[in-house]
Write a structure and sequence with these properties.
Helix content is 33%, strand content 14%. By secondary structure, it is of the alpha/beta class. The chain has two domains: 133 residues, 3-Layer(aba) Sandwich (Rossmann fold); 182 residues, 3-Layer(aba) Sandwich (Rossmann fold), CATH 3.40.50.720. Strand 9, helix 10 and strand 10 form a beta-alpha-beta unit. The structure holds NADP nicotinamide-adenine-dinucleotide phosphate and glyoxylic acid. Glyoxylic acid binds next to loops.
Length: 330
Amino acid sequence: MRQPAVYVCRPLPGRALDLLRERCAVHVWPDPEIPPPREVLLEAVREAEGLVTLVTERVDETLLAAAPRLRVVSNVAVGYDNVDVAAATRRGVVVTNTPDVLTETTADLAWALLLAAARRVAEADRFTRAGRWKAWGLELLLGQDVYGRTLGVVGMGRIGRAVARRAGGFRMRVLYTSRTRCEEVERELGAEWRALDDLLAEADFVTLHTPLTQETRHLIGRERLRRMKPTAVLVNTARGAVVDEQALVEALRERWIWAAGLDVFEQEPLPPDSPLLSLDNVVLAPHIGSASFTTRARMAEMAAENCLAVLSGRRPPNPVNPEALGGLLP
Ligand code: NAP
Ligand code: GLV
């Protein structure tokens, strides 16, 4: 029986590749660290019916036009701002993602960055390794308290809620903003809705959890950073472009805010001349929000399941453009 061709943009952890290979002719880009160059990808998709992508792959009109047989783009991520979903839908290509399974792991990382930025953990590590620790000091590396303070969640979706839930352990007051109010969250977590500008002025810790869309690009810019407290910490595990990074550098340098913890950047990987690299009051991570052994394996398996479902004429578990499903069976 003819097997559909699937191109996979990176080696996948767990059982994902075995699942795909049972039913498809699978080609895998072999380098686990460097994505396939654009020209390689454009050539590779010519015969592909399925494409398994990471956040590093730009799936746009040009790529879709080069892939006339393509039926499914299965993104190994919950965010899909790397995919032109409208263009895929126009061509009847189903786009899928990997929600839920990475929620708790990403929330953990947001908290790791929040605590590290508030208590200067990365800076303290650099200080200790450099042999600069002379004696216990009353004013050595002082930071911000977390317990009992106010957390502001921007984007109270799956990950925003998981981050807010953890705030209970720190007896924090929780404020949130989303376009739609969520009474269940208000009841369950005692969270209070605020307009974004009010949340920024009131919160001691602001954590971002919106998708990157036209509406959220540079949601946190110069004016909004100016509204935050000089003692506030900004955490971004959403997407780099939700924050105007140039304005953030200024805010950190001029101390409009106390510190930031960042997992995502406007340009990834972070360029070696990025001014963020020379600032002590920012904790940096290389987009590792969902990077636990279990979660990454599960994400890859979900992506394989989504891809296989579409290629065998079934509705995939996680479509982001259900309007492209056409006659696929439930
Ligand atoms: P989700 O459940 O869809 O939550 C997103 C939330 O953002 C929704 O509650 C939505 O509520 C809100 N929102 C959307 N537009 C908004 C706006 N303009 N202003 C305020 N709130 C807005 O998604 P999720 O699973 O939590 O994931 C969120 C994002 O995290 C992903 O899209 C991805 O970019 C990022 N992420 C990053 C990592 C990482 O490795 N760092 C890992 C996983 C996810 P309303 O529609 O009511 O506004
Ligand atoms: C990672 O960034 C994701 O969106 O899953």
